[in-house]
Every structure is written in C-alpha cells, then in structure tokens.
Fold these 2 entries.
Entry 1:
Amino acid sequence: MQLTRKSKAAIIIGLLPAFLIYAVFAIYPILQSFYYSLMEWDGFTDMTFIGLDNFRNLFEDPLFWNSVKNNLYVVIASVLGQVPIALFFALLLNRKIKGVKFFRTVGFLPVVLSTVVISLTWSLIYNSQNGMLNEFLRNIGLGFMAQNWLGDTKWVMIAVLVTVVWQFVGLYFIIFLAALQNVPTEVLEAAKMDGASEWMTTFKITIPMIWDSIIVAVILCISGSLKTFDLIYVMTNGGPAHSSDVMALYMFHETFNNLQYGYGSAVSVFIFFFSLILIFIVTKLLGKKMI
Amino acid sequence: MESIVTTKNNRRTNGKLKKRLSRIIIYTLLGLFAIVNVYPIIWMAINSFKSEQEFTVNQFGFPNEFILENYANAWEIANLGVLFKNSIFVCVTATLVTVIIGALASYFLARFKFRFNKIMYTFFIFGLLIPIHATLVPMFILMKNLGLLNTEITLLFPYVAFHLPITIFILTSFMKAFPKDIEESAIMDGAGIFRIFWSIILPMSRPAIATVVILNFIYNWNEFSFALVLINDPALQTLPLGLANFAGQFTTNYGAQMAGLTMSLVPIVIFYLFLEKEIVNGMTSGAVKG
C-alpha cells in the first residue's frame, strides 16, 4: 500500500502493542539470561561479575552432563519413536477405509491434553503398588516383571520415554496424514498400472513425495525434545538420584532450589545455543530452510 | 482347458482372500493404535468412580456402583472451582489479547511496504526459536522487579509474548495471499486504514484466525512452567499447577486424584471434539509450512 504520513503513524500504532509486549517479555529475558550467566548471584544480595566462571564450572559438573545425556535420550526416543510410528499409522490410514475420521480424532487426542494431566495419569499407570501396568502384568502371569517403574534408576528413563513418545505421536501422525492427502492420486495410479507393488509405491513414490514434511517433523521433534520439562518435573522431578534429570529441570533446581541464579542462567544460555546449533545442523544436513 | 479355468478362479479367490486378510490386519493395527491412545484416559475415568477397596481388587472392570464421593472430595481438596475460574480467565484473556494485537501487527506486516518491514517480521519470527525454559530465571526477576509476581494478570504477559511469534507467522502468511487491489477499491470508497483492517482483512482471515485462536487456547490452557515459577498463591493457581500440587500432596488417595484429573479433562476434550476439524487443519497448515 502507498505510504502517506498518516499511514506511517498507523503502522507505528498497529505494530507497537505487539512489539512492546514481545520485546519486554520475550526478547529482554533471553538477553538478560546472557547477562546473569556472567554473574555470581543468589537472587537477593548484590551480583558479582565472574566472567565465564559459571560456564567453566558447568562443563566440569557431572550432574549437568548427566542431564544433557538424558536430554539426548529424549531426542533420540522422540525422533526414532514418534516419527516412524506416526508415519506407519498415517500410511496405514491413508487408503479408502471406513472410520478415517474416528482414527484421526483419536490419534491426535493426546496432543491436546495438558502435559501435567498426562504425567499424573501415567504416574498412576506406573504406580508400583496398584498401577495399571503392574496389575496387568500380574493378571497375565508375568507378575515377576512388575517393577517400581518410576522409582528404579534402571527403569525410570524408559518409563518416562514411553510417555513422551505416547504424548506426541499424534502430532506427527496428523502432519503426515495431511501431507499424504496432498500426494496426487494420478501418480499412484500410474505406478499401479505399471505393476508396482504397494511396498514399491510406498517407498519409491509416497515417502519421497512427503519428504519435506518428514524433515519438518524431525526438526519439530528435536526442538520439542529439548524443551522437555513439565512431564519429568511432575512424574519424577528428575529422580531417583538424578537418573531422569534433563537440562531444563537441572536449570530449574539450580536456580530456584539452590538459589544459584547466575549458574542457572548459564545452563539457560547453554540450552539456548544447544537448541539453535542442533536445529541449524539438522536443517543443513537435511537441506531445509527453517524460516 | 478346464485346468486353466480353475487356476483362474483360484487366483481370483486368492486375491479376494488376500485383500480381506490385509483389511483385517490394517483394522487390527489401527484399532490397537486407537486403544493405546485412549485407554489410559478411559482407565482413569472408569476407576475414578470406584471406592479405594474396589480399585485394588478390580482395576480393569466397570465399577459395581458409581461412587461420586471421589468427585466431591477432589473438587473440595484440590479447590477445583478456583482453579477452573483462574484457568478460564487467564486462557481466554491471553488468547484474545494475543490474537487481537497479533492480527493487527500481521496486517501491517503483510499488507504494507515500509523500511523496517522485513526486519520487524524476522524479529517476531525469531521468537519461535527461543526455548521458553531459558527465560524462566530472568522472567521471574523481571516480574519481581515490576511487582507482577502473584497477581491475576501475571501470566498474561509471558503467555501473550511467547505466542505472538506463531500467531504472527500464521496470520501474516495468510494475509499476504490476498490479491493486491483489495485496499485500493476500499480506499476509493473512502475507508481508512483501520477500517480496512476491521471490515475487510479481518473477516477474510477467518480460517487463519480460527486456527490461531485454537492453538493459543490449547497452549494457554495447558501451560505449566511459567505458572510454576510466577504464581505460588493457591488462590491464583491455574489448573495444571493446582493439579500437580494436589497430586503431590495426596499421593495415596487414588480415587480423588483420578476424579480430579477426569474433571480437568472434560473442558479440553469437549473443546477438541467440537473443533477437531479446524484444529487438525490448523495444526497441519501451520506445522507443515513451518
């Protein structure tokens, strides 16, 4: 649109509310966390500038690396669990069968539910005394396999990861389903005419044609996994003995329980760059522009 | 001759059998997928009507009689009335504010050429890359300094700020697609800039607006981290925060826990079932383009 002086004023008025609230409550905090990460500070008394000491300590902190490791488990389980399962069921549903709408609705349902509700529900399922899982194992005669799922350092991460995968399969399922609907039917029919089997068509035509969506799913999956916090906070709070700790949770405890604001901020800064770098690498590897 | 006919027939019945078999396999697998997705929730809902004793002996069947006591207990102990009220207020207000100021900003970013347009847009979209947990500490300190910890409007600020990027992203790309001469004819008719926004652009953007309203609503309704850090007054807690605290305090009262969780699920599940189509459309268009 042509600009007059009046429209310049209008642009400023129109952009200002969004700009202000976004700059003050999203951009300013992330910049502040850089600043705090260079300080030694308990949140109450005066700050002392200590340069990069927080980061030096961070890199020597085995508990921090433990949380990074667990976070990577979440990333791996999400990418290797959610994406293939979602793709499998989307391909299964992408044909002329009855009940497509039903399966689609049910498939996406967990994504809509609050993480806290999901965590609490699954905590009840994993409950060592009368949780559904142990009860089920006892009923089918496998009682010896019953475990204290969330209280055992060997099992806790696996239990948590199952819930993580369960929660978000539906998201990628829907993305793939939408992508599959955009694959032109003529192409598939032509392949059929040429005598290609269903396997061939799926792997040589359908999947390559929705490759972009698969990449988007992988990127969403990775960046989502790095944000894991609520689920583990509610289910195990990082325990037992830090065996289910992740970066965001570690940051939270260091800051608000141990009152090390500077050190906690250093973890925040690490999370920020870790996410950016990982997304950058993945987009470069897969040749997709994020924005 | 005869043998050729039989093999042909055999092949046909074989093909039919194969087709039927693959159908059975497909439905079985999809059925399993559906059960795995909903059974945990149904299990909880059914058991929320059982007494403590019945729960321990009969976990997988229907209750002998539906006991509503768990619900009364949960409502009272978890203070669900207050939690619902707070959640609805925060969620509705934050969604409205985000969509209104987001739509206004998107209008100028999508329909006007000015010097800082591209920079401004990139600036907003950058927010999609900010991990919110990296801002919890400074957000807490900022809110403390502003005297905004533990108030009714505390959560509105971070919720609006962090959902503007996706809102602007979806709305801008939608508004950009309108033909260029829309405004010209409106200007001929004497409409001003804000008039064009309100009477032409906004109504035309309805599908995208629906999408961002739904997305914002679901995010805000379920948000936990900011509520955890910025609110500790029980009278101001939102549903996810209140439920987490409630479950932490009443670990052994399974019936009441399950009743509380079931009640908290009702609004969002109804919301979802009503708007399922739009949610799915919105999720896909937003996510696939991302």
Entry 2:
Amino acid sequence: MTVKNHDLSHLAPSKLHNVLLLLSIPMVIISLYLVFIWSPVERVMGPVQKIFYFHVASAWNAFFAFFIVFIFSLLYIVTKKRSFDLIAGVSGEIGVVFTAIVLTTGPIWARSAWNTWWTWEPRLTTTLILFFMYVAYIMVRNLDMAWQKRARLAAVFGIIGFANVPIVYMSIRWWESNLHPVVVSEGTETGGGLDPGMLVTLIFTVMTLTLVYIVLLQKGLYVEKLNLYVQSMKAKKREKMIS
Amino acid sequence: MLRTLLKPALVIAWKDLSMEWRTKQTLSAMLIFSGLVIVTFSFAFDPSNQAVQALVPGMIWVMTIFSGVIGLNRSFMAEQQHDNIHGLMAAPVDPASIYLGKCLANFVFVLIVQLISIPLLFILFDFHVVDYMGLGYLLIIISLGTFGFIAVGTLLAALVAHATSSEILLPVLLFPLVMPVVIAGVQATRIVLIGQEGTQDVLSWLQLIAAYDVIFFAAGFLLFDYVLEV
C-alpha cells in the first residue's frame, strides 16, 4: 500500500457517508415517533407488541448482513481484493449484533405473546444456530496469522456457513412438522392481517434500520482503513528506527 | 481423471491408517472418550429405566460427534508437527485428492469407533435392536451421517490447523455447521430404533442427510485448495 505522508483525505469519510449519516438521524427519530406514539396499540398484546417493529427490522438486517458476507466472501475468493474481505468482515460483525438484538427482543415479546421465553420452533432455532455460526466466523477472522491467509479462511467459512443456512432451516422445519404443526410462527408473518398504520410503521422501521446498517458498514470500513493506515505507519516508523 | 484423483487419495488415506495402526494413539483416545460418554450417561440416567431407551439415538450421535472431533483435531496436527503439510502441498497431486484422502482416513476412524462403541452402548443400556431391516437402515443412516460430519469436519480441521488454539476452535466452528446432519441423524435413528413412524419418514431424513453430504463434500472438494494455500 502506498501512502503519501500528510495527505489523509483518502481516509476521511466520503460525502455519501456524511449524507447518509445525517439522513439516518431524523429517520431514527421519526421511526421512534411512529413506533411509540403514532402507530395503534395492539388490542390483545398491548404495548409489548411495539418491540416487534425493531425485532422484524433487525432480523431482516441480520439476514441481509449475512448475505453480504456470503457475496463478498465469494468475491474475495475470486478477486483477492482486500476491500472485499473487509466488507465481509464488517458485515459479519454487524450481522451478529443484529442477530443478538433479534434473540433478545424475541423472547421478551414471546413471553407476553406465547407465554413462554423460548420454543424450539424452526425460525427461532435457525436464528440461534445462525448466531453461533457467525460468532464462529468472527473467531476465524481473529485468528493470528497473515491477513491474506486469514481472509481466505474466513471467506471459505463464510461461504460454507451461508450454504448451511437453508439446510438447517429445512431440517428443523421437517422435524417440527413431524411432531406438531407450526402454529406459533404465524404471529410474525401475517403481514396481510396487520393494521395499515402498523404496516406503514413496520416498513418505515425496516427502512430506517437498513439505512443504519449501511451507515454502520461504512463506518466500520473507515475504522478498518484507519487501522490499516496506523499499522503501516507503525511498521514504517519501526523500520526507520532499526536502520 | 478419476485415477489421478483417487490414487493419491488412497495413498494418503493408507498412510494415515498405517500410521495409526502403529501408534494407535488417536483411536484409543477416541474409544476411551466414547466409553466415558457412555459411563457419564449411565450415571445421568438410570439404564434400567425403560424411559431411558428414548435417549439412545441421541447418545449414539453425541458419541460420534465428540469422539469424531478428537480424531479430526489430530488429523492435521500430525501433519503440522513435522511440517508434512508443506510436503503434501508440494507433491504433484490435486489438493482435492488430499481432501479426499483425509476424509477417507477420518471416516474409517470414526466408523471403527462406532463399530465398537454402539454395540457396547446397546449392551450396557440393555437395548434390543429391532430386526435385520432396522439394522440395515441403522447402518445406512450412521455411515451417511458420519460421512457428512467428516466431510465438513475435515475441511474445517484443515482450516484451523494453522491456528494456535485449534483444539478449542474446531468444535466451535464445526457444531453449528453439522446441525442438520445431527438433527436428521438423531431423528432417523430414533424412528428406526423406537419410532412408530414408517420407513417413509426415515427415507425423507435420509434424503436430507444425502443432500447435505453431496453439498458439503462438493464444497470441500472445491474450497480445499483455498484452505491449504499458504
């Protein structure tokens, strides 16, 4: 990597990032308003139901983030470009955070909706396994070795991990259907039965959190780039001191 | 094509097996481990209790996976110790055949362990195997399921072999990935051994295991090259 000494402008966030960041602030405020004040209170579950907006939005973003990991892992394997590896890594980390949000908000909601914290229902089990898999992915990324090698290993794991997701989902679905029909998942997927106000809020929250994901991804990339720059500077200084 | 791929694979598998035959290190560790699993289970659940029979399918797979991880961990460790891995990589063979050979050797190890420990489990838990038909199904389920586990495990064992803490890392990476095989294996074994469901359900679980085997064996075949490269 060639770095000019005092020109750090390539490390500064781009204009697009600043615009998105500024845009995300009012969007988060508006979605909070929509969720807590504007949207109607659910008749049966009451205010607890409002956690559902964040839950669904985080879930969608977690899956999206892991999809990005898969795509950029493939791209890295083919092209060997470092930026692709960085994108996959940052996306994996954000995905784990979103999955953690899903796995904490889910039980809170389930407690009042189904009167239990957790059931071994396909969607829940898959999400939990997904969480473990991408925590492992982060562990692979933290292996102590040269970055090319680490990136390649992480890419391999990212690919086979994502290939595993549909199989896990299918296997767990079959397993449940053998014992008793899948009833409980109905609550989260009856989009048609939602009140229009709720639907608008849901769509808006999903959009907001997707924007937050994009902003976080960019932020993470800038942090990684700064990190690399600092490391290269350190290496240079060390060389100077030795010679 | 098949010859150039298969022959080095058989040589590598043979090398691993004959090395194991001389030292018997890995196999004895795996056997002792699966024996300990049985002992632990016998303390946890009273073997004379009829209800415990429902746990036998799960125990079979717990033994397979836990002892399998020991074997997988050692499979590339031996290569690392004397830097054999570079020799393997420098040898004029396709990386895919290294994968194939390692898979075969690990598969045989786990099968040997199962061949000893599963009958032992049946005897100690006083479990009556149903009939020859069920026994045949059991053999197919166990060998297919073990193969899927080994196909993923060998790839991941090679992946973590370079890390300093690979013994800890391998189970963490492997267990979430082999979840489908474990679920399908346990369910199919349960149906064969104690279930009231017909063979139709066993076949649908077997299909899942077979699909998993094919997908991950192909993935290992294609991706092993990237795992080995230094």
